Amino acid sequence: MNDVLTRFERTGPAATALPVLLTPAYPQEPLLQALPRLRHEIEHHLPRVGGVLLRGFSVPQVEQFRQFAAGFGHPLLSYEFGSTPRSAVGGGIYTSTEYPAHQSIPLHNEQAYTREWPMKIWFHCVTAAPEGGETPIADSRAIYRRMPEAIRRRFAPGVRYVRNYGDFDVPWQSVFNTDNPAEVEAYCRRNAIDCVWLADGTLRTSQLCQAIETHPVTGEPVWFNQAHLFHASNLPPEVRESLEELLGADNLPRNTYFADGAVIPDAVFAEVRAVLAAETVSFRWQEGDVLMLDNMLAAHARAPFNGPRKVVVAMAQPHGNLDRALP
Fold this sequence. Notes:
Keywords: Antibiotic biosynthesis, Dioxygenase, Oxidoreductase. This protein is α+β, with helices and mostly antiparallel strands. It has 2 domains: 2-141 and 281-320, Double-stranded beta-helix; 143-274, Double-stranded beta-helix, CATH 3.60.130.10. Helices cover 27% and strands 28% of the residues. It contains 10 helices and 20 strands. The strands form 6 sheets. A 7-stranded mixed beta sheet has the order 2-3-17-7-20-5-4, covered by helices on one side. The chain has a 4-stranded antiparallel beta sheet with strand order 11-12-10-15. The longest helix is centred in the first third of the chain and has 19 residues, at 31-49. It is globular.
């Protein structure tokens, strides 16, 4: 067990305890068998720290991971209104985002670009990449505290996400899990999403969502949005230039605006990304690892990698703010 502990190294801000490391009572203790004794400890740490890393346990198949995640009392969720490509493994388990290996995925809270999201998210490392492929994480409360006051104030009313579904992004049929426009429109009505079918048959949606939220258990404010991922400044400069020339600045596949519809300057997101970088915690995956996060208290990302890598994901316990007006 000491070998397992000594191999856990992380980089990040000195003050963070994220993630709390939990190890087996004996070598290769089956994770499912350990769940009864671990549950109380995990539920103690999650609201205080935001995440736990379970290392050294036996998780011989993805099915055991699925049962472990389902063992916390909430049905596993399907991936609806998705923003990235991923594949269903079965039973509420999905692959992690299937972007090319050389690309980074910035820090984000899962589905924070919507008004309903999972409170719990689990990651299971089936195959650790020989180089890179980490899943960096960060404390969303610390991000909020570090964020410049002027940015917090400007984002307090929320952030507007605009998506144009076409040849340059995930097709709307995959996002809404249907090819029936009427079902898309019904989903949008239920979820406070404005949608319009354009003259060429493509779909545009616009939704005002939270940028800052209050955790329902701890009562603390968290930085909770994906504005920097959807904003045009997240595109490689040459891709952005080509798309703006081809489609026009107002018709990019996705973009974000202030709640009042004003354009968000690139410089704002340069400051936001600097805060995220300062709060990032990173560690190397080991095969068999399970990372469990409170999705509102901890953001996650993905580093580029070489070689084979397989990380699967489960989500549970929906929560949202559709029952109230945003500020």
